Amino acid sequence: MIAEPSSAIAASHQENSVHDETVPESTVQNGSCLRNGNLKTPRGKRKVQEQCENIRRNSSSTRKASQLQNGQVVEAVTLFEVVSVGKRAMQSVVDDWVEAYKQDRDVALLDLINFFIQCSGCQGMVTAEMFQSLPKSDVIQKMTETFDEETGLQYKKFMAYPWILTVTWPVDMDNEDYPLIKPGPYWKKFKANFCEFTAVLIQQCQCSILYDSYLMDTVISLLTGLADSMVRAFRHTSTLAALKLLTALVRVRLNLDVSKHNTQRLYEVEKNRITGKRTNCRLDQLERKRKECEQKPLEIQNMMNAIFKGTFLQRYRDVIPEIRAICIEEIGSWMKMYPDTFLNDSYLKYIGWMLYDKQAEVRLKCLLGLQGIYNRKELVSKMDLFTSRFKDRIVSMTLDKDHEVAVQAMKLLMLMSQNCEDALSSEDCETLYQFVYTTHRPLAVAAGEFLYKRLLNNQGDEEEGLPKSRGKFEPSASRLRILIAFFLESELHKHVAYLVDSLWDWAASLLKDWACMTSLLLQDAEEDGALSGAQENALIEIILVTVREAAEGHPPVGRGAAKKILSVKEKKIQLEDCTKITEHFIVVLPQLLAKYSADAEKVVNLLPVPQYYDLEAYSTGHLEQHLDALLKEVKDIVCKHSDMDVLEACSRIYDILCSGDLAIHSRVDLARTQLIDELVDQLNQLLHDSWHEEEGLCTGEEGISRICSALRRIAAFHNAHDLAKWNLHDKTSELLVFEMEHGSLPVQMILPALQCTYFALLWQLVAVGERPSSKETLLALRKDLRLFCQICTCYLSHKNKDLSEKAFMILCDLLLILSHQNSSSDEAVGLLEYLPSMSLQSKMLLFIQDHVFTEEEEEFKDLTEEEERTKEGYKLNDLHRRRSLLAVYCKLIVYNVVEMVAAAEIYKHYMKTYNDFGDIIKETLSRTRHNDKIQCAKTLVLCLQQLFQKHINTLGSSNSMELSSTSFMNIKELARRFSLTFGWDQVKSRESVAMIHKYGYLQRYIKEPGFCKGDEWHPLVWYRNSLLANEEEESSVTGGIGEWSSMSPPKISTFKRKLSNGSLLETSPAEATNKIPDFQCTLQLASPAGKSRKRLKAQETSRPEYLPFLCPAGPKRRCSQNMIKAENFSEDVGEDVDVDVVGPEQG
């Protein structure tokens, strides 16, 4: 049985926890760190040898290599240097060492020991003394690892039989790198060379010195002792070396098994032959070899057990994730290489337990190891218990926070479903199928492979109950029905693009079978096996998405990069697909439009197909009759429908086909002109019959509906086509003015009229920018623009929510266009330039507060499942609407159309609405800081000041501060979030942070330097004084807190802000001169750097008064003699703010 993983994993960081201490970087390139002093052999068999490591033996001269160090060629004479350089074949390096071992095994072993020590990054000294020369009691005392405080050296003493090794190195905690974790290609290559060296060492020794009971005992003792060290470098390096040795021993064991089998066969053959003297000698020889082959595996097995118990069992739960990952990776390879020994529950449990590891790297190694096992059908039979125990965990790992782990978990489950019968239940499969809709493309593609191989490629049970198709499309039609059924059952009807993209790599031939798809759509409803209405909608949507994927060659929005670079082969396939799309749909699309012309949902998904045509095929292939058929069907659709989505799709068709460089341009332009003539004549006739200048609209509901439909059709075409010659602006503008003055027209008529007027003005602006215009034309256009802006401003307070929001969106877009004109005529720019007045800015900001940040009361009642789904859909649409309103207003702030200080009202809602609008507000903050760091920082201070003043006002006349109140804690958290936006580069943010300290937190003038109590605050006082002393030197920070300079738009430096003639201030002069009561309080604010919090005490605080629309809850201020004049309004300059700093013990 496999034990539960909970206890094992919970204890993984406790039972085997070791102090993570690292060895300093290895700088030993001359090999002078090893001294085998006091090396004594028993009974004088060998003289005492004491030599430095850089005094090499003659056998070492053959493995010299060279490396470039500090511009000079240095000979590599040690094993570490040769392996690091990696210029020689590893087999020759090992052969040299083996020859040296055969000559003097003690010296060669010390060379190998030094190699492992140096690979750990140790630059210390290694001494060795024989185990036989010490009493047993002394041996126990020397198995220690201590730190000598007097010398500052770290000691590691352990037994590497038959020696006691002592490693001494200086402790340098500042340097934590060692070769295995150093970055760069050189050290990555070193790791590969290190692993190769250990493998080749066993390979070259397997026929000679591997079984001498001296080499492997010493090496295993060494690596086991180092693996138990508190030093991370020793543990990591020795664990990797030991497990690679075990892997090499597994290969040796496999070779021995093959040799044993062959020897046994030869022995049986020889035994059955005729007996004779010569035969008996051969039989005796084979008998000795057979016994030798039986003995060697036992020795190898003992070595494997020693390494597994001494290293793996101790380190697979190490605190370092890299060490745990090495253990899991190697045990997975052992199971694949030698399943007879390792592929059982006693070893599989370690992989199962580590599936719950906290580090993604370890979990990933587990999954990769299991993939190698489940991929082989002959091994799956041994995995029954493991599968039943850990299958649920693997299924849950598809939701892993690490994307690569989730992808590999999905691939593993696919292998399990292929090679293990009934391993996954139907519920598991249904859960895994839904991952085709995930935004992470590699995971979605893996889920698509699972769906294709499990559902679409196995059509046995799935086809039962489905109608059979006949003819040449039968196989593809059956699979398409299964795909459509899956899509409809998933109830994610707006995500078909994600489904197609997930299956594109595996089912491209099916998804590109447009002939089969259209044949299913063109079947008569009475035929057997015809599709239902929902199935037809799904199939048409699949056709559109597959055509787009084939023509554009990039994934849908939200999945990976917007566009990917195609290879030559992919471009060739793309061209072939475009040709196939053109040849097929030029003929079939008019037939489909004729059949579904009355169904708006189907028509919307069919009309975009021609934009992926090769339009030259109409003329080169003499297919004008199909073009005429297409234009005829599109015209019929325009006349039948008034839905804006359908009409805009038809408008785009004409726009695509009317490209000036096409041979069919004249034919399509004539058809378009005829259609618009009919639409305009129809609108003129309806208005002539029902519109009176004094009375307004005089008609019934049917007449109003016809007028609205005509206006929608014209608005849809006016968006993509210049209809200036029909002079629609005057007619629609008249309707808007009448609604502004009287307000009696239906909203469904005003909305398309507003759009028509807006599009007409935009086309006039385009014409002015492209060619020179007379001054009379510019003045007339200026008048129309001012009138339209006035109309939109009036509609902001309209009782109809849809109309007011549409007017706001149009107004914001128009203001942005007018403030950033691109015209060659300076006169045109000067006359048409328009920037919002302060009054208009106030109205727009109040509109945002009312329509974006106003919470709607939720109704709590019992709802059915359908009502819950409808309510959720309404919430999503409402959130999308509010995000659009906020985004279009924030663009005005970013591009300096409105004052940046208006963003203070937006920033107040950053915390409360973070989930809904956090990304928009954060991007606005980033862009404004890029435009003007100082003004952006002032805006942040203004936001916090307003919130704090509101908090003070809620306390009333109470002198005590509620530091634990919710509002004050929210201010602190908002300040902390603001501080995080400055980033980690203190040089870039220094100017902004210094400004915040000057104007937000610290005193501007310090009269008593000794006011702060306690010596611990002197550094802060010095810092504050340095800021104030350098104030005059910093040209970017000018003026007092009441004289904030407004930003100069970077792109419209030649423009001058025009203010309205009306007074912006709505408060009386008497109210403006009122003073707020002085208060003393102790408050706690987060520092801008986000690293420390200090307590600040504000005394006699007087804050500047800002514009009413920017500071609805802002405090009043004291009067000042300094006045700032801007047309017809004035603003006083506030007094300086005095803030004293006190220590935390004084709070």
From TrEMBL:
Residues 312-397 form the SCD domain. InterPro entries: ARM-type_fold, Cohesin_Scc3/SA, HEAT_SCC3-SA, SCD, STAG. One of its GO terms (molecular function) is chromatin binding. One of its GO terms (biological process) is sister chromatid cohesion. It is found in: Nucleus; Chromosome; Chromosome, Centromere. Residues 24-39, 57-67 have a biased composition (Polar residues). Residues 1-67 are annotated as: Disordered. Residues 47-56 have a biased composition (Basic and acidic residues). Belongs to the SCC3 family. PANTHER family: COHESIN SUBUNIT SA (PTHR11199:SF2), STROMAL ANTIGEN (PTHR11199). Component of cohesin complex, a complex required for the cohesion of sister chromatids after DNA replication. The cohesin complex apparently forms a large proteinaceous ring within which sister chromatids can be trapped. At anaphase, the complex is cleaved and dissociates from chromatin, allowing sister chromatids to segregate. This is Cohesin subunit SA. It comes from Crocodylus porosus. The lineage of its organism: Eukaryota, Metazoa, Chordata, Craniata, Vertebrata.
